[in-house]
Structures are given as structure tokens and as C-alpha cells.
Amino acid sequence: MTIIYAHRGSNGQCPENTMAAFKQALKEGADGIELDVHLTKDGVPVIIHDETVDRTSNGNGFVKDYTLNSIKQLSMGSWKSHQYRAETIPTLEEFLEWVASTSLLINIELKNNIFAYKGMEKVVLNMVTERGLLKRTVFSSFNHESLYKIHLLNTDAETAPLLAKPLPISPMDYCRELGARGIHPHYRSVNSPLISELHANHLSIRPYTVNLPHFMRLLMEWNSDALITDYPWMAANLKKQLKQS
Ligand code: G3P
Ligand code: MG
Predict the structure, then answer these.
(1) What CATH number matches the domain at 3-244, 3.20.20.190, 3.40.630.30, 3.40.50.12780, 3.40.50.10540?
(2) Of 162, 155, 168, whose CA–CA distance to 183 is shortest?
(3) pLDDT above 90 for 107
């Protein structure tokens, strides 16, 4: 059955990439969480989508220019609703501590395609390994060189390149070159033969960001390994219906 990853947590209901969004995703029936990681000025992995805090906080400026202590002063929820004003930026460590107490799968997206964040791969990989969560984690990124670094650091770490349209001529060859075990493509570039071919090559596919029930259903029928969605509740309901039919 297709695994449901909540994109930035329950992005449809809560402020993205907050502990509230992650906890809500679990309540809504997600099987896993997708989240985005940057590094602070003092090298701490924190969970936020953009390079700056402008869109999703009450502050402004680049994440890389904030120390952990100063970025923690910002509200990451007040932009969405007063109800979430107490949400602060989660550190990866905080998230891992919580997720370890659940059976959720983890998709850590390294947001190092604009700023390289020197040493990020090692810090993030060590954190996941030390918590004993490596088997539950897949590392993705638009920075494929960075994924190759992770593979070289530990060949047990599962990586999957994020691919905006169009796909490489042979996603299979591309994965082999990178040491990746699957791909995370844009959902509009996926079709049934592609999924079959990946599976025949023991590779996984987890398309993003699938928010329309029509495409959720297609991917489930095509046996996609997973899908990444802002609406985990919608995908979970659909999955239940398909199981019963
Ligand atoms: O990991 C899937 C998806 O999150 C990639 O795009 O911009 O939402 O991080 P973005
Ligand atoms: Mg992402």
C-alpha cells in the first residue's frame, strides 16, 4: 500500500514545519513526515522551508544569519493564526526526539541547493544515526551532490533525489550513479510504466506534492511506494476506501 508522507507536516491545517503540524499529521493518519532542514549561524539543523524566515515567521532575514537562540525567539505560527502563536522553529533534534516515540517514517529534505551549508550532511546524518532512526529515514534534496556525499558517508543511509520536471532520460541509471534507492519526482511527471520500471530495478518512488484526490487515487492504483501531500487526512481516507473496495 502507498505510504502517506505529510508534506511539512499537516501543511493544510497547521503552520508548516512546526511541531503542531507534525503532531496533527500523526492524528490525521499519516505514515510519515516530510520536512525541510537548514543550518543556523551556529550550525544547528532547524526545520523550515525557505532560506529566510520572512514568509513563515514574525521576523525577517536569512536562517543562516540567526543563532539558534535568536531564531528561537520568533513565532513560526502567528502568520497562520493566533492559535499557533506559541510555535517556535523546531530543531531537527527536537523533532527526532518526538518522532522516535511514534512509528512514523521520516523524510528529511536537505535544503542546501541555494546555500551549501558546509558540513550539513554529516551533522544531520549523525543525529539520525545516534537516535537509531536511520532505518526509518530517507534523505532527499534538490542538491544531488549532497545526497552523493551522504551515500559516501554511510551506504546504509537511504537517499532519493528530488526531481522537478522533466525527469532524466533514465532515472534508473541516474539512481545507480548517485547510489540512490529511489526518486522523489514532481507528481505530474509520473506514470504507471515509470513506476513498474523503477520497481523492476528495486527502486522506490515518492512523488510530491499530491493534493488532488484524483492523482492520489491514481498513484495508489499504480502502486506508488509513497506520496507526499499537504492533506494526509484526505490520502488516508482514500487509502481506506481503496482497501475496502
Ligand atoms: O520533498 C518534497 C517537496 O517538499 C519538495 O519541494 O519546495 O515543497 O520542499 P518543497
Ligand atoms: Mg520539502
Answers:
(1) 3.20.20.190
(2) 162
(3) yes
